[in-house]
Design goal:
By secondary structure, this protein is an alpha+beta fold. Helix content is 18%, strand content 38%. The protein folds into 2 domains: 127 residues, 2,3-Dihydroxybiphenyl 1,2-Dioxygenase, domain 1; 128 residues, 2,3-Dihydroxybiphenyl 1,2-Dioxygenase, domain 1 (Roll), CATH 3.10.180. It has 5 helices and 18 strands. The longest helix is centred in the middle third of the chain and has 19 residues.
């Protein structure tokens, strides 16, 4: 099976778009939405069983927090078995899967899992915003799940609990889900995913930089377009590029904000992680790329002092 694939929401950088598209915000008359909070939304990480302990221990040693009790269960609508563990940290939540059977399609392609207040309403809202339900609602051991796909192929899992979920503390910082798209795909993605996600999540575009410093993605002295979205589901970063990305850029699907990047990198290295891309400073923040045991790749950044 694939080794340590992270599945997360989206960061997208786009070619020039009309003001009317990027100026679109959530419709305040459309109701409160179905999001619960970013502390209940997780990046999905698929990892080999033999790497489970090393990965979870390294991630927690780097960012703090604690893992849930590990379990073995069926979390798909068709027969399968996986080890599962949630990892709750101050900078973001993981759902870690280590399948003992082949992974049923399309699981493993979803980027994230979002807790919703009402599954029926969530499905209705997602369809109204332009998403396709590619796995219709099904029961798992503790609730109901579904998988949706936005124009451009961005996949997300929705879930709802039969009983109130454990109360997770608010996150200290909100992770950003990073999506890389091509220039050819950008127009369709903006019309479909970005505008649709804004409607679904009641989010807003907080920044649109048409000439962001491409040193952030391993290409200093060049520029690219970067769009930042925020919502109760969490942050989304949209990156539009020509696809000429030096390794490891494009493999990271989630970015984590920390207070002191240097100290975090030292803790990560001591816990068995590797720095794949050293710190680079631009646009008021310093960013680096880490690879954890098992192959999970993540961006980590700290903001300049204000």
């Amino acid at each position: 099976m694939p080794v340590a694939r992270s599945m997360v929401l989206a960061a997208v950088f786009l070619i020039p778009l009309s003001v009317s598209v990027l100026g679109a915000q959530a419709d305040p008359g459309a109701g409160p939405g179905v999001a619960v909070g970013a502390q209940y939304d997780s990046t999905h990480v698929y990892i080999a069983p033999g790497d489970f302990d090393a990965f979870v221990n390294s991630f927690v040693a780097t960012f703090g927090g604690k893992p849930s009790k590990r379990m073995v269960s069926t979390v798909t609508p068709t027969p399968s078995r996986t080890e599962f563990q949630a990892v709750i940290t101050p900078v973001g939540v993981l759902s870690v899967f280590a399948y003992q059977t082949p992974v049923p399609f399309p699981f493993g392609q979803e980027r994230t899992g979002f807790l919703v207040t009402d599954m029926n309403q969530a499905i209705k809202d997602a369809r109204a915003a332009g998403a396709e339900v590619i796995v219709e609602p099904f029961k798992d051991p503790i609730g109901i799940d579904a998988v949706i796909q936005w124009p451009g192929g961005v996949k997300m899992q929705l879930y709802w609990h039969f009983t109130p979920p454990p109360k997770n503390p608010p996150l200290e910082t909100i992770p950003e889900n990073r999506i890389y798209v091509s220039h050819d795909q950008a127009d369709d993605l903006v019309r479909g995913f970005v505008r649709g996600f804004l409607d679904f999540a009641h989010g807003s575009v907080v920044a649109d930089d048409k000439y962001a410093d491409a040193g952030e993605i391993g290409r200093p002295a060049e520029t690219y377009r970067r769009i930042r979205i925020t919502s109760l589901f969490g942050n989304v970063l949209v990156l539009v590029t020509d696809g000429h990305l030096p390794y490891p850029f494009g493999h990271e699907l989630t970015g984590y904000e920390v207070q002191y990047l240097g100290a975090t990198l030292n803790k990560a290295k001591a816990a068995g992680a590797k720095v794949l891309s050293p710190p680079y400073t631009a646009s008021g923040r310093t960013t680096a790329i880490l690879e954890f045991p098992g192959g999970y790749i993540a961006e980590v950044h700290s903001l300049a002092a204000r």
